[in-house]
Design a protein that fits this description.
By secondary structure, the protein is an alpha/beta fold. It is built from ten helices and nine strands. The structure holds pantoate.
Length: about 280
């Protein structure tokens, strides 16, 4: 496995690699959700590149950029075990030099959910992913369903900007009690960790209601909200039942929908979702 830290090195190496290239962009502190993406990329491509880069531009000024967990040596060990060919670990200086002034702004689908709660977040995500795609030039890129809106944003960007990259999506990997794997779970103390299962419970409630024939999206939202409010450590940011493609809120569950939510458990903001 080669660890590449500069842009010129990455570009030179890329020319020598067997194609198709499978690419997994990450912010590191890898968990089983990331490793499921890497394993699939390994099965489907002769070359696998993983990037590890905590992108400052997708964090708001009062968010957790400084405290975001970082453990590069452990990440490299895990990636080596998975048989990854190249790990790209760029620096802030190279990714965002002082004269940097071009951004990728995906409209509409970014107006809701995470886009509404975290202004500028998806501009940061789309810009860094576009930059990484230009540097790595993958045939396929792999993302987790846990960040369902991010997947829609990236698919939109790839289609609109004719990038010709296949976007592969893997299901959310969960702990045994249903909590979606996330690097941010490491912020939770034991009491918060227990309380965090309320996200999965609320999503399962939505799914059970739907499977029982419930078609009223508003009623479903309120049942989810009531359940979360029973957990004293939880503070709701949003609870959404939206069109699975546009992410516009639904009144009636008369088409494929996405139940999603953002909830603070203590100081930790967690997100999760489930297709209905
Ligand atoms: O999902 C993530 O970890 C990040 O948003 C990504 C796609 C690596 C861009 O920084």
């Amino acid at each position: 496995m080669v660890v590449v830290k500069t842009l010129p090195e990455m570009r030179a190496l890329r020319q020598q690699l067997d194609t198709p290239v499978g690419f997994v962009p990450t912010m590191g502190y890898l968990h089983l959700g990331h490793l499921a993406l890497v394993k699939r990329a390994r099965r489907e491509n002769p070359t696998v590149i993983v990037s590890v880069y905590v992108n400052p531009c997708q964090f708001g000024p009062s968010e957790d950029f400084a405290g975001y967990p970082r453990e590069l040596n452990r990440d490299l060990e895990l990636l080596q075990t998975e048989g990854v060919d190249v790990v790209f670990v760029p620096s802030d200086d190279e990714m965002y030099p002082p004269e940097f002034s071009s951004w990728v702004d995906v409209e509409k689908v970014t107006e809701h959910l995470e886009g509404a709660s975290r202004p500028g977040h998806f501009r940061g995500v789309a810009t860094i992913v576009a930059k990484l795609f230009n540097i790595v030039r993958p045939s396929r890129a792999y993302f987790g369903e846990k960040d369902a809106q991010q997947v829609l944003v990236i698919k939109r960007m790839v289609a609109d900007l004719n990038m010709g990259i296949e976007i592969a999506v893997e299901p959310t990997v969960r702990e045994s009690d249903g909590l979606a794997m996330s690097s941010r779970n490491s912020y939770l103390n034991p009491e918060e960790r227990r309380a965090a299962t309320v996200l999965f419970k609320a999503l399962m409630l939505a799914r059970q209601l739907r499977e029982g024939g419930e078609e009223d999206a508003e009623k479903t939202r309120w049942r989810m909200i009531s359940l979360i409010q029973e957990e004293p450590l939880a503070r709701i940011d949003y609870v959404s039942i939206a069109d699975a493609e546009t992410l516009e809120e639904l009144n009636s569950l008369d088409r494929p929908a996405l139940a999603s939510l953002a909830v603070r458990i203590g100081k930790t903001r967690l997100i999760d979702n489930m297709p209905l």
